[in-house]
Amino acid sequence: MIIVMKRGAGEQELRHVVEIIKKHGLKAHVSRGVERTIVGCIGDEAKIEPLPLEAVAGIERVLPVLRPYRMASREARPEGTVVKVGGGSTPLVELGTGAISIIAGPCAVENAEYTDVIAAGVKEAGAVMLRGGAFKPRTSPYAFQGLGEEGLKILRAAGDKYGLPIVSEVRNVRQVEILDRYVDMFQIGARNMQNYDLLMEVGHSKKPVLLKRGLASTIEELLMSAEYVISMGNHQVVLCERGIRTFEKATRFTLDVSAVPLLKKLSHLPVLVDPSHAAGQAWLVPPLALAGAAAGADGIIVEVHCSPEAALCDGEQALLPAALRRLAADLQTVKNVCAAHLQE
Ligand code: PEP
Ligand code: MN
Fold this sequence. Notes:
Layout: E1 2-5, H1 11-23, E2 27-32, E3 37-42, E4 59-63, E5 83-86, E6 92-95, E7 101-105, H2 112-125, E8 129-131, H3 149-162, E9 166-169, H4 175-180, E10 185-188, H5 196-203, E11 209-212, H6 219-231, E12 237-241, H7 259-266, E13 271-273, H8 275-279, H9 285-294, E14 299-303, H10 321-339
Parallel strand pairs: 7-8, 7-14, 8-9, 9-10, 10-11, 11-12, 12-13, 13-14
Antiparallel strand pairs: 1-3, 1-4, 2-3, 5-6
Helix pairs in contact: 2-3, 2-10, 5-6, 9-10
Phosphoenolpyruvate binds at residues 107, 133, 137, 169, 189-191, 212, 242, 274, 277.
């Protein structure tokens, strides 16, 4: 941490600052410039980080040297993290190996028949995991809210039948226990990215967590949320860029493609792109998915339905399984071509 003293700060103020630093077990390195004095703090920054140092007389600014998300930062694990999902009743899937993985399925689990057909279709198209909401976070309380536990049973059965580990959204702390009985991976939705109780609860779980970026959250806030999960002991976190709120209304959300290489550089965690919720329209999903692959994503999570016009939730943005098959063929090619241009 570097402390910049105010112009004109006196010797007494400087002495007080040095005392605070030493009191917390760190060393202070004072450099006197012509206009300003700078104090470098050497030692365990975590000890003085929580202090309101900018309120101390004579201090103008405090500049942290380390990132506030220590365990999620790339420095914590420069080689990158491979997150392992499933492996019980389904094959084990590894996210973050350099390949691009496809997680696909309906927005919401609607019934066993559709789920079975969709699971068969996405498997055939090359997906390695099945998604499907059972507890849906809907804007309207009158919209279809999902089948709840019944939906999880249906998703589990389809995942087991087709050898696809399953991921589903957990909306609150109480549901963690229910979801834990069925899913291979917890999904924390965009609207819950800063639900710290929920982050801590899944942080105590042994199952991997798919953490989606909040609608209006910064990259740093996303990484701080990942830090919550990791700091509770669960290191199996996958980040997901799913579009953010901007002034643009032509798309549902604006896919922040730059978040992908940035997250890969700043963090060791695998990064997925959700082109479906960003696009809001099915025809726009493949180009956004390919943009994500070009930007270095470790995979996509994409909505697929066998009968989009009959879907109870997000039918407009659902791909048919055949469209996913066409997309899957090009995703890895694009990722490979672009990999040489990415810096990790
Ligand atoms: C979803 O994936 O079903 C979903 C609701 O996504 P998000 O939380 O990103 O809106
Ligand atoms: Mn959806």
